[in-house]
Amino acid sequence: MKVNDTFLRACRREPVDYTPVWLMRQAGRYMEEYMEIRRRYSFLEMCRTPEIACKVTLQPVERFELDAAIIFADILLPLEGMGIRLEFAKNEGPVILNPVREEKDVNSLRIIEPREDVPYLLEAIRLVKKELSGRIPLIGFSAAPFTLASYIIEGGGSKNYLHAKRLMYTESGLWCRLMESITSTLTTYVNAQIDAGADAIQIFDSWAGALSPQDYASYVQPHTTRLIENISGRVPVINFSTGTSAYIETISQCGGDVVGVDWRIRLDVAWERIDHHRAIQGNLDPTVLFATPEEIKRQVETILHMAGGRAGHIFNLGHGIIVGTPVDNVRALVDYVHELSSQRR
Description:
The protein is 49% helix and 10% strand. By secondary structure, the protein is of the alpha/beta class.
């Protein structure tokens, strides 16, 4: 079986024959085969059953000519081992039953032991690796410290992050202790995924855009930097955030082999600002996948033009695939990226 290492070579800014492409949430609710399983199991049951997680991970790989798989999991899986009670309410997303807002809550948190607390995830990675047989790389992932902290402080999703920011502003010492604890857990969690066979890691800081540039630099950057430093050198690391165009340079300074950017900034502008000595990932607006094939092709051409054929570009969306996205449009996107980028080489 032919080994496709295009994604990994792009992470290292090595020459490739075409631009590699994978998509955040590429295994998910836009696919009927996923929904067939989802109708029989809860989301957490799917994550906690290695055979199901493996099957779901492979579904888009079997449908499309993707250049990487990403393990089917959730950024909140470490919480139970930390002592946080989590459930997914129907149509409401994750709910934290015991949010962390006081010193006693921070003191009660523990550093997880992945082999005991998330053995199902590690087994799923091993199963996927066996099934892929080196055909394409497998990406593992985790939340960044701020995004995970915000979830456990807010108790779920949030519009203004009031509880998290109040703790950050009024009890900076306690905030730092919380972030240090979370960073230690995430370090252990991610390294266990690498040990299990993950070929690359993406760090998701989906909520970093809620912060001002100065608050990110003061309260968050040191912890994200420590996490990335603790896993760098083993496999390529993608540092992804959303809504952070105003301070993408600071995001880049946290480290990582690749900086993931959303659609709120031009790819060429972002790459110039983070320095071309680092790879870049992105950055199609996910809603474009609801457009016509002609518009999808035009948007792909625009992004590839901005990348300029420079080594180190990985094509992706600026965030995850949206529920209801037409499957044929996903296929068209992947095919356009391969076809049009190979013509530029």
